[in-house]
TrEMBL record:
One of its GO terms (molecular function) is ATP binding. Residues 349-583 form the ABC transporter domain. The lineage of its organism: Bacteria, Pseudomonadati, Pseudomonadota, Alphaproteobacteria, Hyphomicrobiales. It is found in: Cell membrane. Belongs to the ABC transporter superfamily. This is ATP-binding cassette subfamily B protein. Its main location: membrane. Residues 34-318 form the ABC transmembrane type-1 domain. PROSITE patterns: ABC_TM1F, ABC_TRANSPORTER_1, ABC_TRANSPORTER_2. It is a multi-pass membrane protein. It comes from the Bacteria. It holds the Pfam family ABC_tran. The chain crosses the membrane at residues 37-59, 71-94, 150-169, 175-194, 247-280, 292-312. InterPro entries: AAA+_ATPase, ABC1_TM_dom, ABC1_TM_sf, ABC_transporter-like_ATP-bd, ABC_transporter-like_CS, P-loop_NTPase, Type_1_exporter.
Length: 599
């Protein structure tokens, strides 16, 4: 599939191209959907058969020969077969299309989740959450609705008029040709409405995603909104986005009113035209009464289903517009992975002339080089925004370096399978995220097959067992979304427990105690001692007192390595590290308010 971002000024493909594109998405379910389409077509033909039989009976009542007792039973049989076909084919078509459409939706969601899992973090950070969520929910639901209901309705909208036209052509071919005149004349208006719908649907999808983003921000930021008394502002932001979505939806209906009404009017003009033509030929003696009855009876079955086709194609165009956003996920390039799948020889980490930028015009790292020996502790310090956390992100391969390379055990990270790299690294972030579920489920995030004994051992090592057992349900306690039911220190210890359970040879710490109170800090420091024992440790340090015994300290400033050494050596150099240490000591003695001299 190729991503197609549709805008009002862009060229829009034909309706047939839209259907082909949607069917191409169906993959393994395409044949089942086409089979459902065929079943619905057979249902429509059975309906046409019943309708044709009734018209034949009416025509024979006023013509020769009339319906007799001998011919009535075949008529009844035909009507019974038609009814059975309508019911049977209808049920089979519905079951086939609905089952295939929902399985397609499930497969597509799994495919999107798999793609999202392999995309670089830059892709996720550059998009609004609402856009991805809308693609996973509303957009796929739109596709499911089209394949379950809209696609089969196309068969009905085409099948019955086609059968009616064939019967009319057999009865009186000049009348059949006249019946086509209004349909052919209405086709340009149909294409006009279809193109306008495609362009407006793209704008509507963007507005819908924006409204979803504002809603997520409002709900997730409720604590900050309430703390700063910004409830009105938060609500207003969401309401503005919702009003924009509503305005575009109403505007879409208004803009489509003229072409759709024009299409309907032109097509329906075929009724008086066909009546006039049939009447003229009948009174001129060129058309028998039976053919008149059949011709007049077929008129509505010829035009009414075609009018419904406009509504069906609206669903197809909106589904195609939804597919645009889905394509932007499925077609996004993942992190490239080498076919060599090399394994590291040991766990020494080496940064060589690494350069990286989140934005092209603003480099974050420039010519960064250093070595982290196996089973050693390396601390990374520096002012805010100097690139400390970026180093951990690159080592975890959330992004790829732009210049230079990073090796693990002598192997470039880009030559390793991402799963192999992730298996060797445990990360404890400062901003802990827990998943909805139980405490036990969160601890086993990195090792889903762990036993309860392993879980409990990891929790004890993380100094978390006691507070877990104090909870009403122990390890079966639900943590809430993002771990909202636990305190910051408790969430941090759960994150350390899952890192302990993973038992990876490399541990990355984005200062786990930076925002923790002194009581929890002591417990977490004890937990970290269990975590990092006999492992390669890299820690981004905000509290310099926690890294005095590091084997080496990397001082980063404005994206490059300013100093490297041990604590005492760096203090003796009287450089940036010494200044940071001095500022840290000043901050440690800082007090709120003025201290009276004789207090």
């Amino acid at each position: 599939m190729t991503a197609q971002v549709t805008s009002p000024g862009s060229a829009i493909g034909s309706d047939l191209a839209a259907l082909r594109r949607l069917l191409a998405l169906a993959g393994q379910w395409r044949n089942r959907l086409l089979f459902g389409f065929f079943l619905r077509l057979l249902q429509s033909i059975c309906l046409g058969l019943a309708f044709a039989t009734v018209l034949w009976v009416l025509a024979s009542l006023i013509g020769e020969p009339a319906v007799s007792a001998k011919t009535i039973w075949p008529v009844v049989l035909i009507m019974a077969v038609s009814l059975a076909g309508q019911v049977g084919f209808g049920i089979l078509a519905m079951q086939t299309c609905w089952l295939a459409s929902h399985r397609l939706g499930g497969d597509l969601r799994l495919k999107m989740l798999e793609r999202l899992r392999h995309l670089p973090m830059g892709f996720h950070l550059s998009r609004d959450k609402g856009e991805t969520i809308t693609a996973m929910t509303a957009d796929i639901q739109m596709l499911e609705t089209f394949f379950a209901d809209g696609f089969p309705r196309i068969a009905h909208a085409l099948g019955l008029p086609f059968a009616a036209f064939l019967l009319l052509a057999v009865t009186d071919w000049p009348a059949a040709l006249v019946g086509l005149v209004s349909i052919v004349c209405g086709l340009p208006f149909f294409l006009w409405s279809s193109r306008r719908l495609a362009a407006l649907s793209a704008r509507r999808q963007i507005a819908q995603a924006d409204a979803a983003t504002r809603m997520i921000e409002f709900v997730q930021g409720m604590k900050v909104i309430r703390a700063f008394n910004r409830l009105d502002d938060g609500w207003t932001s969401f309401k503005v986005a919702l009003d924009r979505f509503h305005a575009i939806s109403v505007g879409m209906i208004t803009a489509l009113a003229v072409p759709i009404v024009a299409f309907s009017a032109v097509v329906m003009l075929g009724l008086p035209l066909l009546v006039a033509f049939i009447g003229y030929r009948h009174f001129a003696g060129g058309m028998p009464s039976g053919s008149v009855v059949i011709g007049l009876g077929l008129m509505m079955s010829l035009y009414s289903p075609i009018l419904s086709l406009a509504g069906v194609m609206e669903t197809a165009r909106m589904a195609e517009s939804a597919l645009d956003r889905i394509d932007r996920i499925l077609d996004a390039p993942p992190l490239p992975e080498s076919a060599r799948h090399r394994k590291p020889d040991g766990f020494e980490i080496c940064f060589r002339n690494v350069g990286f930028s989140y934005l092209t015009a603003k480099p974050v790292l420039r010519d960064v080089s250093f070595v982290v020996p196996e089973r050693s502790m390396t601390a990374i310090v520096g002012p805010s925004g100097s690139g400390k956390s970026t180093l951990l992100n690159l080592l975890s391969r959330f992004w790829d370096v732009e210049d230079g390379n990073i090796t693990l055990g002598g192997v470039d990270l880009r030559d390793m399978r991402f799963e192999d790299l992730a298996a060797n690294i445990a990360v404890v972030f400062q901003d802990v995220h827990l998943f909805s579920g139980t405490i036990a489920e969160n601890i086993t995030t990195g090792m889903s097959d762990a036993s309860h004994a392993d879980i409990e051992a990891a929790a004890r090592a993380a100094q978390a067992h006691d507070f877990i057992m104090a909870l009403p349900k122990g390890y079966a306690t639900e943590v809430g979304e993002g771990g909202a039911k636990l305190s910051g220190g408790e969430r941090q210890r759960i994150s350390i427990a899952r890192a302990v359970l993973k038992n990876a040879p490399i541990v990355l710490l984005d200062e786990a105690t930076a925002a923790i109170d002194p009581t929890n800090e002591r417990a977490i420091q004890t937990a970290l001692e269990h975590l990092v024992a006999d492992r390669t440790l890299i820690v981004v340090a905000h509290r310099l007192s926690t890294i005095r015994n590091a084997d080496q300290i990397i001082v980063v400033d404005q994206g490059h390595v300013a100093e490297t050494g041990r604590h005492d050596d760096l203090l003796a150099q009287q450089g940036l590290y010494a200044r940071l240490w001095h500022l840290r000591n000043q901050a440690a003695s800082w007090q709120l308010g003025r201290v009276e001299e004789n207090a």
